[in-house]
Amino acid sequence: MTVVVHRAPVVLSPGAAPLADGAVAVSGERIVAVGPTDRVLGALEAVEVELNEWDGALTPGLVNAHTHLQYSDMAAVGLAEHDGFEAWMSAFMELYPVPRDWGASAAVGAALCLRSGTTAVAEIVTDAAAGSAVHDAGLHGIAFWEVLGWTERAWADSGERTVRAQLAELPTPPATGLSPHAIYSLDTAVIRDLARLARELGVRQHIHAAESAWEDAYVRTGTGDLAERWRANGRGEFALLRDGGAGTGVIRYLDDLGALTPTTHLAHGIYVDAEDRALLRARGVSVALCPRSNAVIGLDPAPVAAYLREGNAIAVGTDSLSSSPSLSPWHDVAALHGIARAQGYADDDLHARLFAAATSGGARALGLETDTGVLRAGARADLAVFPVSASAPRDALAELVEAGPDEASLTVVGGSIRWAGTPESERTSARV
Ligand SMILES: [Zn+2]
Question: Which residues span the domain enclosing 36?
Fold first, then answer.
């Protein structure tokens, strides 16, 4: 079999020293060698080699650890600015009921992911029509079926049967998972039972958590605007509303329900204190940080510096185009860099750690850490090349983290080229 070698002036992989003039050799779906170009080619002398030479920085494919591709059609909401979760949700709900082709909208989002150098996603599917986009685009990752709105009574009647059937409808690959939407949109017993169901089915869970201040008041005391809205919408029978809250914050509440396990990751994680972060570390739960979405909605920034200093597992998500200006993870990485510095994180490992969050950290959040998010012999050949103006590897890393591009020049998923920004004719390709 021909071995395909991708060569670039800079090769970066989390946990490894940056390389000048490096190469990644790929056979089928897998990486077979990574290193300085002369060494990689030297070891392949007896094999037929297809050499592709790229300008820029070659990295593992980015992992978008929180998105909803089906809302790609709702960019009008994500391009505006809102002054809080309530205002954003009203804007979202004004557009949501408009009949639209969720499948086509999700397919647009999946194509944008590939263009941005993303090779794996944590995709939340709310409408079944959007369920095949990740599969059709050949992206890696997990399609999470979103579960919301169930009261304990309705769930006892038909919940598990319904959700099992909905999950079974999602095409594979990718792997599928369950996304209990949030602590305020599901009754307490339902969140507990979904954790049991995920375990039983052997699937991962992904939950929006600690995203807004309203959510915090809601879980602690069953009060506030969100609680009032829910009572008015006929959800007054939710246990948290009936009982006047759980008396704890979101993270402790989820843990009490058995929902925090190493096979769960959270999105947002803004309103968390040191005790919450310690609990997340103890449970092996990653948090997908989505800073641009938080800013569009008008929320506070997450405690990025504290997560880094305390050693929490973090990943990067764009969220959807209904709350973010683009699906390009580098822009969220740049936002995290700005937030961490503003919060006083002064260590010089910040570039390396945020690069890791967008690659190996995302892979870990999705339980794919042995497979993707790094350039290593044996891993899946999920990689990307990004244009950079710096030529020294460390400067190229700094440039990607602080001002990475919208678009990759190459995206390879499982060994297959899924996006090549430059026309075929401009590429140097030779057999050696
Ligand atoms: Zn979301």
Answer: 3-60+374-431
